[in-house]
Amino acid sequence: MPAASVAAARLRAASLTFADRLARVRPLYGLAVLGVLQVGVAVWFAFHTSHNGWVWHSGGDSTSFWTETWDLSHRLVPPAAIGYGLPVYYAWIPLIAGPSLLNGLPVVTVLQVAVLVPLALVLFWLVAERLFGRVYAWCAAVLWVVAPFLMLLGFVKSYHAVFEDFFLAPHWYGLTNMADFPSLVAVLAAAWFTLRALDRGDPTDYLLGGLLAGVALGLKPANGFFLPAVAVLLLGSKRWQLAGVWIAGIVPSLITLALWKERGLGYLPLTTTGYERFHVAAGVAATPLAFSTRSYIPLDRRR
User: pTM of this prediction?
Assistant: First the structure.
């Protein structure tokens, strides 16, 4: 047998052995190790990136989120410039930490790094395992942990600090009071329950998938771009009653979001054109039947 064939056979055998060992790794132990490693990497980036005490870069959005969180904690309805999710879920923090964002950031940061960072990893593993099996899931989870370092290899060294300070620290590891990272966790959770529902046909999973998709929309309405993929899956399954259960799960969040925008802005961005918004600002009621997606999908047919 040629040497090349022998080497290929040995490599194939070694790969099968490695895959078999990965498949037998107990999820609890493997995810615990990767979760601790992921939290450790998050803490390393927290100290390694630019910050002032508990303040990492947020572009000013963190202040806006905190203002709305404080308002809701004191039973006030703020201008609904953002989704209602984070202000609602974090409304308890100003009550125990104090009125200032600087008081609340230690609570937010520790909560997100200690809970949401490992939870995102676990949910990512669950989605990958549901899609392509356990071996793929372990490889994907390891890549999830080391991805920031691999991404840094793709940038010139002078850009590393910008990428770390403006993306990795605040958004990949949740070191700020913003909805981006919590909404990622919500989308992963919704994806996993939806995929499991399609496999098992369990109405409870369908309902939880819809509820969590609603949580993702409440945290960040732009997560609506996740819904067409779900629609394709639900239509492809042809389980119309169970699809109705999923839709029933998301409806309360859609209603809440509509009320939030209508009460906080005076109009619904999805059903109001820019011209009408100008009139709303001037105190004139908007036309309720108007419909415009230009704020979300800037489609220009003239191009």
Answer: 0.85
